[in-house]
Every structure is written in structure tokens, then in C-alpha cells.
Amino acid sequence: MTHRADASNTLDNRGYNGPLIRGQNPALLLETAMRDRITDSLYWKEQCFGLNAATLCDRAVELTYIGGTYGVAMKPSPFICLAFKLLTLVPDREIILEYLRMGGEEWKYLRALAAFYVRLTFDAAEVYKTLEPFLEDSRKLRQRRKEVYVLVHVDEFVDSLLTKDRVCGTSLWKLPARQVLEDLEQLEERVSPLQGELDEMEDEDGSAGDVMEVDRNGRSVGSERSSRSRSASRSESHSRSRSRSRSRSRRRSSPYSD
């Protein structure tokens, strides 16, 4: 594909013979208003011109935040510009998966960019299979909104891609619910990584209930304390009765008694 700064050739469907995604030009997956802002931006014309799948990776590792548009003028962020560039390049699937792996230790914004592209372009079942493992990534991301920056986490961003219809100022295609794909046998039932901890908590709650049940049967702390108090009161009353009997016997045996 010939590179042009205005990218008008990628947005013109006349004579387009490149790869299609869900039957349409991939560059048209973003809304018209967003595309216009991107192609008119200075970042697109200066930093995205002539990029390929390899050099785009160099730009992605320089990202410092995610987002769609910002400011009063609704300027497009570098993140959304690079996402649009990926849509015009349509790299091989293996390249996107490598982006996701490369973002594992160091380049978290590269992983976020690849996850966003996966949500836009992959089939429904593949979206779940590819993105769900990253629900365990708890690293922090900066997200730029209209006027402020906010902190999110990678797993939070991925969850938004899986559950919401609009992310980073971009409308996403309707993703079927996971249960629907499970019923169609396109996905297996997902086991949460926290399932083991949840099972342990349930076991602890169950064992605590058993202890309370045993306590009610006669070995509770309250009954033990009450039994101790009853035995103490019995011994005290017994000692008092013995002292009284002794005093009476002394009075009777005394030679000065009447």
C-alpha cells in the first residue's frame, strides 16, 4: 500500500482490494468523526506517516497514556492514532499476538493497543480467547479523558473491551455475551483464576459453621463459661455452709454458752 500523509486512499472504497474485516474496509471500523480528527491531526501526519508493523511497534512503546480524544478541540490521542494506523495496515494475526506477548513485562501500552485492535477486528470467540488471559494483568495505565487523567489497570481496560460497547471514545461492534457462545459450543466454560481462593473461603465458612454447631451441642465458649460460673458458685455456697456449721458447733461446745 502506498503511504500518503492524508491517508485518503485508505478511506476511499473505490477500487479497494485489500483484506476485509466483517465484509468491510478495516479503516472504516472507526466512526467518521474520529477518522476525520485523526487524519487531520499533526501526530498522524508527522509520526504515523510511512509506518509499517515493525516501526509502529517503536511508536507504541513510547506511549504514556491511552484514550480517544481530549481537550475542548477533541484532539485525537496518539493511542487512537496508532490504532487507526493498525487498521490501515491490517497486520497478520501472529504480529498482533506478538504485540500482546511483548507487552508482558515492560511495554504495557503496547499490550493495551494490541488488545484494542483485537476487540475491533477479531471474531467474537477469538476475542474472548485472546483477551481473557490478560484479566490477570494488574499493572496501572494512565487514561486521558476530556480534561483529566485517570488511573486504570490493564485488567480493567480489558474487561471494558469485553463488556462495553464504547471504549476510548470509539463505538465497538456488538460482542455477543460469553454465555451465548458457550451455549453454541464455541467457547468452553471459563474457570476464574480466583476460583481456588473462593473455594477455600467457602471451606473456611463451612468449618466455622461446624464449630458453632458443635458449640451449640454443649461445647461452646458461652456454655463452658456458664458451667464454670455455676461450679464456682456451688463451691462458694458449699464453703459458706461448712463455715456456718462449724460456727454452730463451736457455740454449742463452748462452756460459756447459755
TrEMBL record:
Low complexity: compositionally biased ranges: 219-232
Pfam short name (any one): PRP38
Alphabetical GO biological process terms: mRNA splicing, via spliceosome
Keyword Nucleus: yes
Domain of life from the UniProt record: Eukaryota
Region (Disordered): 192-258
Subcellular location: Nucleus
GO cellular component: spliceosomal complex
Main localization of the protein described in the UniProt heading: nucleus
InterPro entries with a match to the protein in the record: PRP38 (IPR005037)
Record flagged with keyword Nucleus: yes
Bias kind Acidic residues: ranges: 197-207
Functional note: Required for pre-mRNA splicing.
Family classification: Belongs to the PRP38 family.
Listed name of the protein: Pre-mRNA-splicing factor 38
Species of provenance: Cladophialophora chaetospira
Lineage, highest ranks first: Eukaryota, Fungi, Dikarya, Ascomycota, Pezizomycotina
